Amino acid sequence: MIFHDIIFYSFAVVLFFQCSYYLFLFGRFAFSKLQQTTRQEQLPVSVIICAKNEAENLKQFLPAVIDQQYPHFEIVLINDASSDATLDVMETFAEAHSNIKIVDVKSVETFWGNKKYALTLGIKAATHDTLLFTDADCAPISPLWIEEMTAPIQAKKTIVLGYGAYKTVKKSFLNKLIRFETVTTAMTYFAMAKIGSPYMGVGRNLAYTKTQFFKANGFVKHMKIRSGDDDLFVNQAATKSNTTYCISNNSTTLSIPKTSFASWFKQKRRHISTAHYYKLQHKLTLALFYITNVLFYALGITLLSIGYLPFYVIPLIGIRFAIQYAVYNGAAKKLNEKGLLLLLPFLECFLITFQFVIFISNKVSKPNYWK
Length: 371
Known about the structure:
Elements: H1 2-30, E1 45-51, H2 55-66, E2 73-80, H3 86-96, E3 100-105, H4 115-125, E4 130-135, E5 138-140, H5 145-150, E6 159-161, E7 164-166, H6 173-194, E8 206-209, H7 210-215, H8 231-237, E9 243-245, E10 253-255, H9 261-272, H10 280-306, H11 310-334, H12 344-364
Parallel strand pairs: 1-2, 1-4, 2-3, 6-9, 7-10
Antiparallel strand pairs: 4-8, 5-10, 6-8
């Protein structure tokens, strides 16, 4: 019985941490009021898109960037040593639109396959101080994307975190899992930014100033790490005073999600590998949540299977799920994500297992590629 008592009290401690995360961290974002940022002056903007073998995606998605309703912006297209027709497609668009600038990056042995090198050249070539980043396989869902994503950039706000959604595919479990992971990640980095401890952003939708980039010495501190041009830069440069976020229907970008578990696994291996280089406080915050998440299910299932104090255990589990559902519901509404809540526990368990497999895989071999 003493062993069972230890399991129960350990479960109670884990439950306390889980509820605290949802109520006092994620809830700060999920239950917050949306604030519309306005400004008198519309600063000129350089939209930066780095592409490697993205000829077909550029044809499909670049027009949504070109058609932005913004008075003064340029588009910097970076061809990162592509082997397909990417450069030809860029040149075709540039011939038709005078605000498109092309940066053709050749392979350099020292920086082979390193997106940060290509991005650095693109940033240097940008005419304007306000930079807005997205990917070649990504499109803003509104012609007001530039206006809303860059509106918060003021004297003290030099980094703006945005939301990069994935297209909904009906009757696809993988699609639900991808979108659930995306919502979870976004809810986390928006909540951390809201409490004054920003730790990451996504390159599909991210803005910062050229001045801020060079003030932080660009990607120099993590140039040898081939991933992390977005999250590692934000982790390095973002502070409570210089960072904010922008979420609205007009500020979102939309990407086509992976269609196989193998391709998504490869993508997430690359993304998760950068977490090792986060600041200690961020690594501890994320690790504690993941560990208590795993223990919640492990200890809860154990207590239910042995029938120990079910009149206490079942209500406690119910409380945790009720809080979690309320938080995810608030976050999903803000991010305009639908159709995920009914499968929430199942998606969460699958994602926990998936992340563990990725962690082990990254320990065995490092994913040193971006394309």
